[in-house]
Amino acid sequence: MKQKTVRFVEWALWLSVVVVATVVMRSSRGQIEQAHAAFVYILIVLGATAGGERWLGIVVALLGFLSINYFFQPPFDTLTVSAPLDLLALVAFLATALVANHLLTRARIEADRAKRHAEEIEHLSAEIRHAEALREANRMKDILLASVSHDLRTPLTTIRALAQDIQTDGSSARMHAGVIVEQADRLGKMVADVLDLSRLRAGAFTMNPEVNTAEDLLGAAVRQFSGVPDANRIETVIDYTKPALLGTFDFVQSLRVLTNLIENALRHSPRGTAVTVSVAETGSNLSFQVADKGPGVSLSEQQQIFEPFYRPSSAAADAGAAGLGLSIAKRLAESQGGSVAYADRPGGGSVFTFEVPAAAQELVETLT
Fold first, then answer.
1. In this structure, are residues 10 and 18 in contact, taking their beta carbons and an 8 Å threshold?
2. Are the CB atoms for 207 and 250 separated by under 8 Å?
3. Within 13 A of 107's CA, how many CA atoms are on the CB side?
4. What's the confidence (pLDDT) of residue 139?
């Protein structure tokens, strides 16, 4: 119904234009020539075809043909054609109008076709993007299931075996209790990492950046490894002769970033080698560096090590981690305006750099 109304309005509009143009030119018939009238009607035909439809343009062309013959070609006010050249002029006008109508109609059809084609391509592109997103989600699901199922298998098997020992031999309960607690803690950390990664990707992680000292953060990170067998491998480098380094960062989450980097360095470097943790001010940032003497990361893997559940090709089947530490560290750093990056260590090994904004110099001077 709406489309019919629009078509009626278009026809009424352009037929009215023909009538108005004819009346105006008829009132000035002594001052215009037949060619002038023909030019005006051609323009109206083009406008009607472009703004309406093909048949409207044809009707306007026929009305123009009759109007020129009746009002603007001698003998006036009659449809009689007195000279062959006048008839030729009328036929030429009608042919020109109809050809213009045909060409403009074709152009409009091609434009509509191109528009529909573009819309189809856009729709297809959207479907392709959606399909790619689904494939990526499915890939991540498979990786998650494969990684988590593998990493859960070892502690669960251990816990089950110990529980069976306790069931059959009560004297071994005290000895096995510590192992059970250790494996349970491993499971708890794995589940917490998966949940935190999900929250980080959803943007639901709250940060509370405050002014803190770099020395306090570094010291707290080292204390996290107290009692760990490899704790003696951690070396800290701090220049206490200079004023304290202050930065604006979330202390708790930054502590987690730094401990994840240290834990990663301890895991992937040979026993007996040192893991060096240092801090310095670089421009407008505080730069924490964790350097090890491990095998480093190949160029082909350097863009992948921060992806969730990624494990180096050289990692053991039971590496004791789900491959979430670096991914979580990077996201926690970026969520508070910082960054985590990898670089090869000169002489062999890896250097992970964790940067956070340094505090304003005026504030540093006030606090120190």
1. no
2. yes
3. 10
4. 66
Residues 6 or more apart in contact with residue 237 via CB below 8 angstroms: 276, 277, 278, 279
Amino acid letter, residue 182: E
Three-state SS at 185: helix
What is the domain class of 210-367 according to CATH?
alpha beta
Q: Contact, 354 vs 261, CB < 8 A?
A: yes
Assign 183 to helix, strand or coil: helix
Respond yes or no on whether the N-terminal peptide bond of residue 75 is cis (omega within 30° of 0): yes
pLDDT tens digit sequence for 72-105: 777 877 777 777 777 777 787 778 878 877 777 7
Return d(Cα 207, Cα 335) in angstroms, integer: 7
Q: Hey, where are the domains in the chain?
A: 1-204, 210-367
d(CA 136, CA 63) in angstroms, rounded, equals 63
- Nearest alpha-carbon partner for 254 in 136, 352, 354: 354
Q: Per residue in 17-35, pLDDT tens?
A: 888 888 888 887 777 777 7
Q: For residue 173, name the pLDDT band (cuts at 50, 70, 90).
A: low
Beta bridge partners of 342: 352
Closest residue by Cα to residue 69 from 82, 78, 59 = 78
